[in-house]
Write a structure and sequence with these properties.
It is built from four helices and four strands; from the N terminus they run αββααββα. With 164 residues, the chain is an alpha+beta fold. It starts with a helix and ends in a 14-residue tail after the last helix.
Length: 164
């Protein structure tokens, strides 16, 4: 009889722990993205060009963004340090653009430190704004393709594409 009571007590205790563990699962998801043009497959976009106007009134910005260990883990790519660093750079650019009310950070420099407590992202650069948006001309497309060839890179066909 004692064995049956002991087994019953263990079963009740195990069910209680199981039920309490199920109620404590938290999910925290945050995504930041910028400068991505997604479209429906049936849509086509003509390339556009814009001028970048550097905001000289603010001068060079120096922003520091501290991430907790949980925030760092949410932006980390397992077994890919380069992708993790790219994610941290993108987050720093996003936060600095938001803080400085600008469209782009021109010539950004990064200093990223990752520790056991999280990460620190230092962003240094100039805030800029896009002005004078226009549909790209044939000359604009050729200049862009030429610039890519001179730097030994191929033009991205998804971005630079002559649409008739």
């Amino acid at each position: 009889m004692k064995k049956i009571l002991l087994m019953f007590a263990l079963a009740v205790t195990s069910m209680a722990f199981s039920m309490s563990a199920q109620g404590k699962s938290d999910i925290n998801l945050q995504v930041s993205e910028g400068r991505i043009m997604e479209s429906q497959p049936q849509l086509m976009f003509k390339p556009v060009v814009a001028e970048v106007e550097v905001d000289t009134s603010k001068g060079k910005i120096h922003d520091v963004w501290n991430l907790t260990l949980d925030e760092l883990e949410s932006r980390s790519v397992r077994d890919n340090d380069a992708a993790t660093i790219d994610n941290l750079k993108a987050y720093g650019i996003f936060k600095s653009s938001e803080k400085n009310n600008c469209d782009i950070i021109v010539t950004p420099l990064f200093d990223i430190a990752i520790t056991s407590r999280g990460a620190t992202i230092n962003v240094i650069g100039f805030p800029g704004h896009f002005r004078n948006w226009n549909t790209a001309t044939e000359t604009d497309i050729k200049l862009c393709q030429q610039g890519n060839k001179e730097s030994n890179e191929n033009a991205n066909p998804d971005i630079i594409k002559k649409i008739k």
